[in-house]
Amino acid sequence: MNMKYKLWDCCLKVGKYQNGNTRLELTDADSGEPIAVATVNFDERLPSNEAFIKDYSENTGMVAFLQEHKIISTNKLCSVRTGYVTVDKYKLLV
């Protein structure tokens, strides 16, 4: 599925972190180069249909983008404070 994220035409790449949690990455639709990693990984083991979404710093707007493309649910499941930011967990729809 090709999508427009900020200035890039990109594709969604679904993978796994080393601990088995789901990883979402946006890659350039033509070159396959990485654009953004949409998820944040913690030690907590999550079901394969849940992920923490990075929606701060260079990823500001990621939640709205993923919701618009029906990749994550519209309602957050919970929030976790980590360092200076709060990260929200969502159900994955992909």
Question: What are the key terms here?
Answer:
single chain, 94 residues, mainly beta, 1 helix, 7% helix, globular
Give a summary of the structure in a few sentences.
The protein has 94 residues and is mostly beta strands.
* Tally of strands: 8
Please give the share of residues in helix.
Answer: under 10%
Q: What class would the helix/strand composition place it in?
A: mainly beta
Instruction: List segments where confidence is low: pLDDT < 50 over at least 5 consecutive residues.
Output: none
Radius of gyration, in angstroms, nearest whole number = 13 Å
Number of helices: 1
Distance between the termini: 11 Å
What spatial order of strands do you see in the largest sheet? 1-2-3-4
Secondary-structure element string: EEEEEEHEE
User: What gross morphology would you assign?
Assistant: globular
Mean pLDDT: 96
The biggest beta sheet reads:
4 strands, antiparallel
Q: How would you explain this protein's 3D organization?
A:
By secondary structure, this protein is mainly β. It has one domain. It has one helix and eight strands, in the order ββββββαββ. The strands form two sheets. The chain has a four-stranded antiparallel beta sheet with strand order 1-2-3-4, with no helix packed on it. The chain has a four-stranded antiparallel beta sheet with strand order 5-6-8-7, covered by helices on one side. Strand 1 and strand 2 form a beta hairpin. The termini are close together.
